[in-house]
Amino acid sequence: MTWDFDRNRPIYLQIGEEICRRIVRGDLPPGARTPSVRELAAELRVNPNTVQRAYQELERNGVLFARRGQGSFVREDPALVGRLRQQIAAAAARRYWTEVAALGMSPEEARRLIAGVIHDDKSSLR
Amino acid sequence: MTWDFDRNRPIYLQIGEEICRRIVRGDLPPGARTPSVRELAAELRVNPNTVQRAYQELERNGVLFARRGQGSFVREDPALVGRLRQQIAAAAARRYWTEVAALGMSPEEARRLIAGVIHDDKSSLR
DNA sequence: CTTAGTGTAATAGTAAGATAGTACAGTGAC
DNA sequence: GTCACTGTACTATCTTACTATTACACTAAG
C-alpha cells in the first residue's frame, strides 16, 4: 500500500495517525509487532528518520513500546483500542461540525450532508 | 477577533479559508472590500507578507481581485458564494467520512456520532 | 563468533513557511 | 503637491520538516 500524504501537514504526524487507525481497525492488535522503522520507511518511500519520529511520538503517547533488536510493539493496555477509537472519531466529528457551523450551516443540513456523502460512497463501491 | 492557528498547517492557507468562510456567511458579500493586507496582519498578529500570500492565492482562485491604492475586493461573480459553500462543506463531509470509515466505523454509527456532537454543542450554548 | 535484523543517535544539507524591514507604485482626500 | 492609505516587490534571516548518511547498541539465528 503506497499512500499519499497531505503535503501541508508533517508526514510523521500522518504516519502516527495511520498506525493508530490500524490499531483501531484491529490490523495491529495489542502486542503485535509494527513494521520496523526501515521497513515502513521503504514502504512509504520516506526517510527512516521520519518514521522513527512518528514511533517516538506514539511511544510518548502510550501507544507503542520499543525493544532494541526486536522491534516496536503495540501496548497491551486493554483500554487502548477503545481510547484511540473514541479520541479519533470524536475529534473528527467535532472538526466537521466546527467547520460547517463556521459557514452558518444549520444542524439539520449538517446531518443531511453527512448522510448524503455516506450514501454516495456506498453506492459508488460497485 | 484574535484567533488561533493550527501550528501544523501553513498560516496563509488558514487565512484564505477564513476569508472564504466570511464570504459564505455573508460577512464579506460580493463586491465588499476585504481588510487591507497591513490591517489584517495586525489583527491576526502575523506578518503582512503572510496575508499577502493568502490574498494572492485567493486571487488566483477567482475569489478576490485587487486594485492598487484601493484595496482587495470580493469578486462579484453571482455563483461565487454558492460555489464556495458547496466546495467547503462537501470537502469537510467527505473528510469526516473518510476518516471514520478508515477506523472501520459503520455508516449508522458515523451518522449517530455527528448527531451527538451537534446536539451536545447546542445544549452547551446556554 | 558471525551475521542480519532491530532501535537509536548524531551530523549535515535542503526546502518551505514565516518574520523583519525597506522600498516602490497607484489612489483619493485635502 | 502633500499626505495617508492601498497593493506589490525584494532581500535577509530564522525555524522546522524532511532527507541523506553514518554509526552504534542490542537481539536472535546460524
Rounded mean pLDDT of chain A is 95
Distance between the termini of chain A: 21 Å
**Envelope shape of chain A:** elongated
Supply the helix-strand structural class of chain A.
Answer: mainly alpha
How would you characterize the largest beta sheet of chain A?
Answer: 2 strands, antiparallel
* Estimated radius of gyration of chain A: 17 Å
- Could you say what the CATH architecture of the largest domain in chain A is? Orthogonal Bundle
How would you portray this structure in words?
- The structure is a homodimer of 126-residue chains.
- Chain A is mostly helical.
- The first copy, chain A, has two domains: 11-74, Arc Repressor Mutant, subunit A (Orthogonal Bundle); 80-123.
- Chain A is 60% helix and 6% strand.
- The first copy, chain A, has five helices and two strands; from the N terminus they run αααββαα.
- In chain A, a hairpin with a 3-residue loop joins strand 1 (64-67) and strand 2 (71-74).
- In chain A, helix 1 (11-25) packs across helix 3 and helix 2 crosses helix 3.
- Chain A starts with 10 loop residues before the first helix and ends with a helix.
- Chain B binds a DNA duplex (30 and 30 nucleotides) through residues 10-12, 36-38, 46-50, 52-53, 55-56, 66-72.
Task: Give the topology, please.
The structure is a homodimer of 126-residue chains.
Chain A: H1 11-25, H2 37-44, H3 48-60, E1 64-67, E2 71-74, H4 80-101, H5 107-123
Antiparallel strand pairs in A: 1-2
Helix pairs in contact in A: 1-3, 1-4, 2-3
The structure holds a DNA duplex (30 and 30 nucleotides).
